[in-house]
Structures are given as structure tokens and as C-alpha cells.
Design a protein that fits this description.
The protein is of the alpha+beta class. It is built from 9 helices and 11 strands. The chain is globular. The two termini are about 25 Å apart.
Length: about 260
């Protein structure tokens, strides 16, 4: 786990301070860029026999009594509220949205709540930032320029789970994922880029539930994707990590792969 003492977000703090002084489209975009790249500090309550990422977050209330998730840009900011600084874990904006998804009463996040100015992001804004974060990670894993994620999205991409997969796909994908011990589950869906596209040319996406990040292992998963070429033809196969933005799909669709106890032997 990243050392909390090493986490700083000076450029983000400067960006939102500038936005408070001069709120323009350009200063808003600067804050957005920093938010989706930042690693924050989240105060949590330790629980025995649980991993830090499973510790419940500490929450704060605003003047109206509404609950918010407090995030800190660095340890010095957290120390402004000693009770909250006792136990901190690093998270990104996608993780933050995950906490909001788990608790519908949380209205959003407040970055550096005990400093003036601070940055308040309501729930819809956090969701949009998490989706942007997801697009950036998808671009990185697919070997594409992540800068494209910041451009306006020309169309709404839909992920469609088929009633059945092409012959050979389930077995071959499962065989490849068995060789990656930390992958627990996988879902597979088609990527519909427009309402009138050709289903025969749609790319496929494999969503992975894994203990380790995909970053740094892109080539490994590209090789697994290539083993599906005999069954999918020239259609691309994109691998990405599961994240809160995909919760609707992964909650409703059955996994195409799920690690069994014998796989770990």
C-alpha cells in the first residue's frame, strides 16, 4: 500500500484554489484533470481481521446535517482534524464513488474539509469523475492515448451481455485466466458504439475482478485476448478492471469465468 506520508496533491490544491478565485471553464477543466489522476487520503475506522480497503470510512456532516466523505490531499491536511488522521488509506476517485454507491445517504465528497477554500463534489459529479477515470484506465490498458478520455464523448457506448458466447470462447478464456492466480471473476460483454452499428463487428470487453491491478500486466492480458481470435475473428478484446461504474452490469450478468477452489491448487 502506498505510504500515506508520500501522498501530496499540490497541483490539485492549486487548481481548485485558482477555480475559487476565477471560476471559468478552463479552471474547472484543470480541477477535473487533477481529480481523476489524484490519490487521496481517506480516514477509516480499523476493524480486526479486515483488510484496510474494507475498513468503514469515517464521515462528516455539513451545516445541514448531510453526510459527506472527507478526503485529504496530504497528511498535513488530515492532521488539521486529529481524530480523522489516526488511520488513513489511499484511494482514487473511483474508490470514492464506490463508497458512495455502498451508502446512498452520502451526498458527495469534500476535499480538505477543514481548510478554506475546500472542494465539494456532489454525488453526480463524483460519478462523472469516476466514469472519466474508467475511460482513462480503459485507454491505458488498450494501449491508446488516455488524453482522448478528456475529449467530449460523441456517442453513448453501451455494454451488452449476450445470451450465449461464440463456441470456444468460454473454455479458452477460462483456460487463460486460470493461469493468473489473482483473477477471481470475469464478465464478458460486447461494446456497442452506436445504435446502428453492425453486431458482427463489435469489439468485446472482459471485465476482471482481480486482487492485483492490471497496470503493468497489459501484455499478459493482450496475449490471453489473442487466444480468442480463432473464435472472434478480427474483433478486438479489451481487458479492464471492475469498478463502481460497471456495478449495474456485474450485479446482473453471470460471470463468464469464476475461479474454483481446484484452480488454486
Amino acid at each position: 500500500m502506498e505510504n500515506v506520508k508520500q501522498i501530496r496533491n499540490d497541483e490539485l490544491v492549486q487548481a481548485y484554489q485558482t477555480m475559487h478565485q476565477n471560476n471559468t471553464k478552463e479552471t474547472q477543466q484543470a480541477v477535473t484533470r487533477q481529480m481523476v489522476c489524484a490519490v487521496f487520503l481517506l480516514p477509516v475506522t480499523p476493524v480486526q481481521k479486515k483488510l484496510p480497503e474494507d475498513f468503514p470510512p469515517k464521515l462528516i456532516k455539513n451545516e445541514k446535517g448531510e453526510l459527506f466523505l472527507p478526503l485529504f490531499s496530504d497528511l498535513d491536511q488530515a492532521k488539521l482534524a486529529p481524530p480523522l488522521a489516526q488511520s488513513l488509506i489511499p484511494i482514487d476517485i473511483s474508490d470514492a464513488f464506490g463508497y458512495l454507491t455502498d451508502n446512498k445517504e452520502i451526498r458527495g465528497v469534500i476535499l480538505n474539509p477543514f481548510s478554506k477554500p475546500n472542494l465539494i463534489c456532489a454525488r453526480p459529479m463524483v460519478e462523472n469523475l469516476a466514469k472519466l477515470w474508467s475511460r482513462i484506465k480503459t485507454a491505458e490498458l488498450n494501449g491508446e492515448d488516455p488524453e482522448g478520455a478528456f475529449r467530449p464523448q460523441p456517442q453513448s457506448v453501451k455494454l451488452l451481455v449476450p445470451k450465449e458466447y461464440p463456441d470456444g470462447v468460454t473454455f479458452t478464456l477460462g483456460a487463460g485466466l486460470k493461469a493468473v492466480p489473482d483473477v477471481e471473476k470475469a464478465w464478458m460483454c460486447m461494446v456497442q458504439k452506436s445504435a446502428n452499428d453492425n453486431p458482427e463487428t463489435r469489439d468485446w470487453m472482459v471485465i476482471l475482478q482481480a486482487d492485483e491491478p492490471l497496470k503493468g500486466r497489459e501484455e499478459l492480458f493482450r496475449d490471453i485476448g489473442k487466444t480468442l481470435t480463432p473464435f472472434l475473428g478480427k474483433r478486438g478484446v479489451i481487458f479492464m478492471e471492475n469498478n463502481p461504474g460497471l456495478k449495474g452490469l456485474t450485479d446482473q450478468a453471470a460471470p463468464i469465468y469464476e475461479r474454483q477452489e481446484e484452480d488454486a491448487l
